[in-house]
Amino acid sequence: MKVLLDHDVPDDLSYLIKQLGHEVTLLRDTLPWDSPVLHFAHETGRVLLTCNRDDFLRLAESLPHHGIIIVIRRRTRADEKVALFSLLERTGESGINGNINFA
Fold first, then answer.
1. What is the torsion angle, in degrees rounded to the nearest 10, for the CA atoms of residue 2, residue 89, residue 72 and residue 47?
2. How far is the C-alpha of 49 from the C-alpha of 3, rounded, in Å?
3. HSE of 66, CA atoms in CB hemisphere, 13 A
4. 26: closest CA among 81, 15, 70?
5. What pLDDT shows up at residue 27?
């Protein structure tokens, strides 16, 4: 699975996703802050991983996407990693693609 990490996603989560064998692109390495993130993710065939729930839930209603994973902020990064790992293991790529999931 190809994943695009939004600006607000901690780098530690990218390491976990890579360890699970997925391809990771950091948005900050690709687009400036004000670019159309969801459009870019869709055009490049990537699932968007973000912590920005409000903006992307609203955008997902009107824009096509290959899937959005919204990471819920937790007390520690380790807790966030566990939640993301659990989601990826439980749903698999088919459960992620085209859907909005919370980790």
1. 20
2. 7
3. 18
4. 15
5. 83
3-class DSSP assignment, residue 16 = helix
The amino acid that residue 85 corresponds to is F
| Backbone φ/ψ region at 49: left (φ over 0), alpha (ψ -120 to 50), beta | beta
Q: What is the pLDDT of residues 40-67, one digit of tens each?
A: 999 999 999 999 998 889 889 888 999 9
Instruction: Copy the structure tokens of residue 77.
Output: 């990064």
Number of residues that this document lists for the chain: 103
Task: Collect the ranges in the chain with pLDDT lower than 50.
Answer: 34
- Look at residue 34 in the predicted model and tell me its pLDDT: 45
β partners of residue 23: 2
Q: Cβ distance 96 to 47 under 8 Å? A: yes
